[in-house]
Write a structure and sequence with these properties.
The chain is α+β, with helices and mostly antiparallel strands. The chain contains eleven helices and 13 strands. Strands 8, 9, 10, 11, 12 and 13 form a six-stranded antiparallel β-sheet that branches. Strands 4-7-5-6 form a four-stranded antiparallel β-sheet. Strands 2-1-3 form a three-stranded parallel β-sheet, with helices on both faces. The relative contact order is 0.15. The structure holds adenosine-5'-triphosphate and magnesium ion.
Length: 331
Amino acid sequence: MDRSDVLRVAIACNIKTDRTSDIEAEFDEPETVDAIKAALRNGGFETVVLEATEEFPQKLEAASPDIVFNIAEGRFGRSREAQIPAILEYYGIPFTGSDAAALSVAMDKAMTKRLVRSCGIETPAFCVITHEEKELPGDIPFPVLVKPNAEGSSKGVSDDSVAEDMTQLRTLVERSMPDLGGDLLAEQYIDGREFTVGIIGNGPDIRVLEPMEIIYRKLRGPHRIYSYEVKQNYQDYISYECPPDLPHELTAKMKRDAETVYRTLGCLDLARVDFRLSENGHVFFIEVNPLPGLAPGYSDFPMLAGYNKIEYDDLIRAILGCALKRYGMRW
Ligand SMILES: Nc1ncnc2c1ncn2[C@@H]1O[C@H](COP(=O)(O)OP(=O)(O)OP(=O)(O)O)[C@@H](O)[C@H]1O
Ligand SMILES: [Mg+2]
């Protein structure tokens, strides 16, 4: 085969170097990048790894890829996940996954909840507590969970992030407010079962996978929370079930809501949508992840894909395939 027939795929990523704190919680392990690389190479693609550092534009120019497989988390701020996609859009380089607009909206949990609510989907009562004003909400029913408004990987969500009354809420907000800025989201805590739904594809080809239930085998605190600590040691605390033991109507509703959220935000190629089911049977949207972790054997997305009989390599190549199709590229 002629070199020009081989599609050149650049993997844009942020690789973890600091494991002593949660600063790089959303960054990827080198093993994840290697796994994506292997999946693409086994599919007959040429690969090059581009770390999303300050020199990313120069590296991009030198590598001159046909398409970018994007897992980069970006650098700072609420729009960080959109930074690499924005650069790629600017230079007209095709890439996998959602565009800068969808990634920016989804990163802001409160903004996403307002949009999702406008579609008639239930989401827990909430209030943004800004870094500047620190004003506490007076009208959210307790218990109230406090989490960063624009983080992922449960960064800033711990086993004691739930307040039972105003006094506890005040203490929790003081403790949780990030030193370097960033708002908090105070949300009604939904005490119920937890599910995550994976989506792959675009337009008429959207495939909503069977929900995966996150089952708490052992608690670290008084509440069921898929906290940072629990995710780090998930084998000790969690078991997963897919498809879950749920009445058909509830599974169907969750899948429908996930697809509505995906289409409303204009997500592309893949996303994961988190839900809680209240004790009285209401499905509550928690958040959407258009850039879900792809760590094999660890992240929820490849795990739920596995339960849906999509092996890791096929998943990676399916994501690339969705993007290539969108751009009308031959492969
Ligand atoms: N309103 C809520 N009611 C009950 N539990 C909640 C609520 N909000 C968050 N949680 C718990 O906290 C966990 C982390 O919250 P969330 O999914 O919003 O954070 P994240 O850091 O964006 O997660 P991800 O790793 O999926 O990106 C949830 O999986 C859930 O267990
Ligand atoms: Mg989540």
